[in-house]
Amino acid sequence: MRGQMTHLDTDVLAEFRAGLITGRRGARITAHLGGCERCTALDEQLAGVRSLLASVPAPTMPDSVAQRLDTVLAAEVAQRNAAGRAAARGEAAPADQAERAGGDGTRESPAPRRPGGNRGFQRLALRVLAPAAAVVVLGAGVYGLSHLNLGSSSSSAASSTAGGAAPTAPSVAAGAESAGHVNAPAANPSKAAAVPRGIARAGFSVVAGQRNLTQANLAQQVRVELLVPASARRTQTPTPQLRGCVAKLADGHTVELVESVHFEGKPATLVVARTGAEDTAWIAAPDCSDTYRHVLATTTLSSGISGP
Amino acid sequence: MPDEGAPADHELLRRHVAGDADAFGELFRRHRDRLWAVALRTVCDPDEAADALQDAMVSAFRRAADFRGESAVTTWLHRIVVNASLDRLRRRAARPALSTGDEQAFEALVAQDGDPARTSDTRLDVDAALRLLPPQQRAALVLVDMLGFSVADTAAILDTSPGTVKSRCARARARLLPHLVHLQGNRSAGQSVSPAQGGDTA
After folding, report:
1. Which chain A residue's Cα is nearest to B182?
2. What is the pLDDT of residues A37-86, one digit of tens each?
3. At what angle do helices A218-227 and A94-102 cross, to 10 degrees?
4. Is the pTM of this model over 0.80?
5. Which of B116, B108, B128, B143 has its CA nearest to residue B175?
6. Which helix (DSSP H) or strand (DSSP E) does residue A282 occupy?
7. Which among A213, A216, A208 has a CA at the least distance from the CA of A232?
8. With contact defined as beta carbons under 8 Å apart, do A296 and A97 qualify?
9. Closest C-alpha to B82, from B166, B170, B159, B24
10. CA A175/CA A169 separation, integer angstroms
């Protein structure tokens, strides 16, 4: 049927309706549609796909995602301000220091740090306080930053200012100072709580993250991970091997975060512990255990939280 | 849309680059529901979408000075979000456990479908069907057919030609047709053409 042409293929019809087929070929399709019920029905169904897609209501952003983005943005702003002030004083920015300290993990300790309030906001969220949560009060929203769930006995603390520990007063003051231009702080700290030591030997949950961390930006990426609200995370139970690995790495220091991640595209585990005045982050290989300390990268997150 | 008298997008971006601590937040909040929709529809997973949007937000925050005003600020923001979303999909593709485009998984999803007329089911079916598309086709289709962007704006967002956008959309619609035709209500009732018939006789 040369003049009449055969029935239209869905792809051809779709291209025709998208304006991709014109000229004589287009005219033939138009003519065919004028006399073929079957292809006309297909044409209507194709138009129906478009109207159906247009009718699906746009999804609304979950509150947990909005809060997480607010938190990360506040950290970005605080860091930019800190970097700007440091630059004005003719110093390297704190982030740069941390970045240099991280790098390939073979460098010496970072340049001497200037204690101060600039990094207080960032540091504020890094603290994990007993029993399970650091609660950061940031203007409009309350974010439970539970980096470490110590099991069922303390799980309710993550979202409660009353049940859990709050940041210590000095750290909140430092945070308020630097974050004041970001969000009006409404710091309301309760009593400082003792940080339990040797958490790695106790039960902990692994944040089931999917971030891909890279060598080049490790320190900054780890900072961001530490800021993500617990409510936005899924957790899972660690394997005995991972528990052993974390205990090996933390070596008795307080573990702040254990998260399954990708490192340079390959599965790994991020472990962050508070090692003295600073945090240390390790990227553990999947075969890391209590007998095999297999670390792919490490970085130090310089601390400004403790003051001078 | 900003209120009367609210600063324009490009003005907020300019203030941000100049050091204003609040400008970027105002700009991003203004558009983030739409950006969220783009990310979620493109990566088809809420957790991945949140990660992609976070990546994009941080990237836009830091790279704002690179914005040269050749396109609208919204186009620029959408481009960063789409790129971050496609990046995540590429990484996910390297991880076999979370592959997309699995026809069997789709069948399993739609098999639970009770009453196809209900909106929630429609959304689920559309979500499931979207997963069948290659990411580039899906991104184009989402922008044009679901979010109402013009072909020209979509081409700018995807950094490609209008012809490529049209082609990707056309192929995507044809691909989705057999999976969505049952949702079209009265239109197809009684005169339905099965996709197999329509497809192999040309």
Report:
1. A45
2. 999 999 999 999 999 999 988 889 999 999 999 999 999 998 888 887 77
3. 110
4. no
5. B128
6. strand A278-284
7. A208
8. no
9. B159
10. 10
Write the DSSP symbol of residue A155: G
Whether residues B173 and A49 touch (CB distance < 8 A) is answered with: yes
Alpha-carbon gap, residue B9 to B19, rounded angstroms: 16
For chain B, what is the radius of gyration of the CA atoms? Answer: 19
pLDDT digits (tens, 9 = 90+) for A8-35: 999 999 999 999 999 999 999 999 999 9
Pairwise CB contact (< 8 Å): A14 & B33: no
String of b and e for A58-81 (b: at least 16 CB within 10 Å)? Answer: ebebbebbbbbbbbbbbbbbbbbb
> How do residues A82-107 score in pLDDT, each as one tens digit?
887 777 776 554 444 444 433 333 33
pLDDT range class, residue A299, cuts 50, 70, 90: confident
Closest CA to B169 of A19, A43, A40: A19
Is A88 near chain B, with CB under 8 Å?
no
Up-side HSE of residue B182: CA atoms within 13 Å toward CB?
Answer: 15
Copy the structure tokens of residue B79: 């481009």
